[in-house]
Design goal:
Elements lengths: L1 H11 L18 E7 L3 E3 L5 E2 L7 E4 L7 E12 L6 E7 L4 E2 L5 E3 L6 E4 L12 E9 L6 E3 L3 E7 L1
Antiparallel strand pairs: 1-12, 2-11, 3-10, 4-10, 5-9, 5-11, 5-12, 6-7, 6-8, 6-10
């Protein structure tokens, strides 16, 4: 009897997001390529700061290497030493000396790292090889902020 109920409920769920192994409209499963930034970055400044050892804190990406990109997201773990001041992290294009639009992440969590995810930023990353890094700033000067733990750029593609 329970199996019939489950089948009926699934049948009534028009337009619901079903697990990937059940979905029929997307026969090609998505692949995920992760690029991980190594190390940590901290500052007391309200101006954007790049990692001092930039060569170990960068990744190289060429979107043309991935067939049918669905999305690209940026995830970083942030914290601020003060609940009334936010930490900001942003994906930065070293090749063109420009920030990546819509990649700013923010947190004002104190005492532990807070993992924050961007929305899809695929349209904001150039269609040629670029070197990317993370830059960091505090909302207010003299407030300690850090990005630490796992900072990842994920490319979702077919």
């Amino acid at each position: 009897m329970d199996k019939k109920l489950v089948i009926i409920l699934i049948g009534l769920c028009f337009g619901c997001a079903l697990p990937n192994d059940i979905q029929k409209d997307d026969p090609v499963p998505h692949k995920i390529k992760e690029f991980e930034f190594q190390g940590s970055l901290s500052t007391y400044s309200d101006r954007w700061q790049l990692a001092e050892d930039i060569h170990h804190y960068q990744i190289e990406l060429d979107k043309r290497d991935y067939r049918e990109i669905d999305s690209i997201t940026f995830t970083a773990s942030l914290r601020s030493s003060n609940n009334s001041s936010r930490a900001f992290a942003e994906l930065y294009n070293l090749t063109d000396s420009a920030s990546i639009g819509n990649s700013v992440l923010t947190s004002q969590i104190r005492n532990w790292l807070h993992s924050v995810n961007s929305e899809d930023i695929a349209r904001n990353i150039p269609d040629y090889p670029v070197k990317l890094t993370i830059r960091l700033r505090s909302e207010y000067n003299d407030n300690y902020v850090e990005v630490n733990g796992k900072q990842v750029l994920r490319v979702y593609y077919k």
